[in-house]
Predict the structure.
Amino acid sequence: MNETLENAARFARAMALFDAANGEDPNQDEGQPKELLYSQRMSEMLQRYAPAADEVVQLAVRAQHICRWSVPRSDYPLTKEGYFQWRTGLYRMHAEIAGDLMGQAGYGEASIARVQMAIAKRRLKSNPDSQLLEDIAGLVFIEHYMVGFVASKPDYDEEKWIDIIRKTWKKMSDNAHQFAVSGALRLPAQYVPLITRAIG
């Protein structure tokens, strides 16, 4: 087997391992394991937003929330500090699981380290891999999850939502901003005025 075929087979093995892990999510979304669907949406958005992204970035994007259900938010104090502890713990867990599965698939230390750095959100504004993953996560949230998130928080007023949208927007790059408003992103129609206010 030549090097190109070996690389393709290794990539396919890693993606299959990621999908198998996320396929164990007991939570359902649109009839599929929730995190498996999320990971597929992340990959689909990457193809639309940055189709030339290399395989390491494709792996990081696919594994961003790997096995997320195994550490519920309720394991941490229901405070702002507890939320940040939960989120930081998840970053480490996702990076460790992704690295282990990539090792099983045959990847070396350098590729694993790149994926782990991106998933752990390290050096967000200076590491292109981390920033690209953050861009994809923000775009996927706006297109697929914003409507459901709004419905789950009936006590939030308009100013609270504007603040949330602005915080999401701030994490994204200028390129992602342009993509979001170019018509390439399917914005939830009922929230376009709110989004326009927030980013204006």
